[in-house]
Amino acid sequence: MTVVHLNQQAVAAFPAADGPRIWAVASGKGGVGKSFIASSLGLALSRHDKRVVLVDLDLGGANLHTCLGIHNPDRTLSDFISGKHKDINDIVQAIPDTGLGLVSGASDGLEIANIKHFQKQKIIRNLKQIDADYVILDLGAGTAFNTLDFFIQAERGIISVLPDPTSIENTYRFLKCVLTRRLRDAPGQTRKLMSQVLSMRHGENRKIRTLASFMTAMDQLHPEHARLLHGELERQKLHLIVNQVQEPADTELGASMATACSKYFGQNLYYLGHLNHDRQIVSALKQRRPFLLAFPQSRASINLEHMAASMLDQDTQSFSTC
Amino acid sequence: MNKKIPANYYELLEIKADASSMDIINAYRQAKLTYKPDSLAAYSLFDEDELERIRADIEQAYLTLSSPEKRRAYDAMLTEKAEIRIAPPAEESTESQNNVVELSGESQSPAGIRYRMAVATDFPGVLLREIREFKGIELSTIAEHTKISRQYLQAIEDEDSSHLPEEAYLRGYLKQYAAEIGLDPDRVSHHYPPLQNRTD
Lengths: 322, 200
Hints:
The structure holds 2 protein chains of 2 kinds.
Chain A: E1 21-26, H1 34-46, E2 52-57, H2 64-67, H3 77-81, E3 93-95, E4 100-103, H4 117-127, E5 134-139, H5 145-151, E6 156-161, H6 165-183, H7 188-199, E7 201-202, E8 206-207, H8 211-221, H9 223-233, E9 237-245, H10 253-265, E10 269-276, H11 280-286, H12 291-294, H13 299-321
Parallel strand pairs in A: 1-5, 1-6, 2-4, 2-5, 6-9, 9-10
Antiparallel strand pairs in A: 3-4, 7-8
Helix pairs in contact in A: 1-13, 7-8, 8-9
Chain B: H1 9-12, H2 21-34, H3 48-66, H4 68-83, H5 95-103, H6 110-119, H7 125-134, H8 139-146, H9 150-158, H10 167-180, H11 185-190, H12 193-199
Helix pairs in contact in B: 2-3, 3-4, 3-5
């Protein structure tokens, strides 16, 4: 059994006792660059001497390995789920020239998309056992429970959106699902009050329509329970990347989506920036090379480096203050 | 820390109370962009009618905050509101104000009181007074109708135990008072804190 040695010079900036920091990349709609973003952010982090492991949790649609230029990973997530490998670190595979580790979902069994509850729990439990500074989850598109449950494990959720109505609609749908899934974990008494508040009619006989007005109603009627819910909602920072921007006007989209989200959900959505449409991304894929290595000078590479650095900054700051 | 939906112009524009005129105009432009007709960013969250209402509120917010004079008056009004803690219902005459408040969480609009009345799990004196005042009913009118002394009615609203009558009387008075202000007498008498303490 090979134990993978990642970037040896890397020194953990925070105690490994807490386990790695987990980021998740997701989207409401497919084909918006999740794997590309996950692999690029991973590479960017590793350049800051962080030990990074990427985990392909797009179960049944895995192709993170392809974004990183790997053909046939010799160990995959299936080997861990099946119990062939007991330690999740044994299925982490080093990616040449990068210092990154990968838990691949390539050539997983055909039934992998429908893993059972206990298998999902096993994966979730073990993510924190991965020996790394950062674990980045590449999730499947859409709002399946598996996807949502992986997503809410992450300290930071990074959502990719394209500047078109279908993608935007699905992004908001995804956010609704994530936030509702979070609130579902509230204690029984709180949930009872929540459904009471939800079923009430108020103002012109309308029911509560937005999460923001729901939370305001909770704040007023049941402040103690509301505090609990706020805590639950704030456990995860949500980030937005607008990908494949072609029109100059679309550069404004991200900030506007953040504004609209704050009004509708009462939640901060941190806009990380946009990535321009770039044909070189496909050429890097065809060359089987990670984009950041193949085209380090491109605008997209520079933007991605910048996004990773800004999130890393936030992490360091929040670490030094605690 | 918690992002609330805007209860006032500052929150509507997502700016601080001490925002500079530059902050205000930038926030205004950002909001106009976000909620413009056919806005991509608002797609599937807000329909055209809602967008139109939001835009009207933004205009009103900007008109108020961009004029130093109007802003001062508005700030004074906010301070006053904060002091009474529970904001009085918006007046019919301030139409635009009504709009903002309505979209902002119903707490400060008449509708808000209506729904808080509908779901309240208890009826402390302050809430009773707020409802009565919202309905524009004078305490003396209630005293006249019910033949309950004004002093007792006042004590009910103040939860002033030294002036409240015996429990049995209190229950009866409370029910009559509740009926006068359009509340369910039993619900109020079962959920009036001083009475709950006594039965405990």
